[in-house]
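Board notes (copied after class):
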Amino acid sequence: MHAGLPKYLPVNLKDIEEAGFQEGEEVSLESLKQKGLINPSGRERRLPLKILGDGELSVKLNFQGQLSPSARRN
């Protein structure tokens, strides 16, 4: 019954860049909600955050969540 359900809440680097985070800010579920990037409901509220590597960042940020290997390289 649980096949195909997501195991994390994905967010791409390009979306984080477009949200306008400032140098040194923390990227977490809460900060992403405040910026309007995510609106988790139901089961999604309990999922961990996973940062995916689609895109690049122009500032250094602190991440609270799992980074994909491609996100670590960017």
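Comment from the instructor: The chain is about 25% helix and 20% strand. The longest strand covers residues 9-12.
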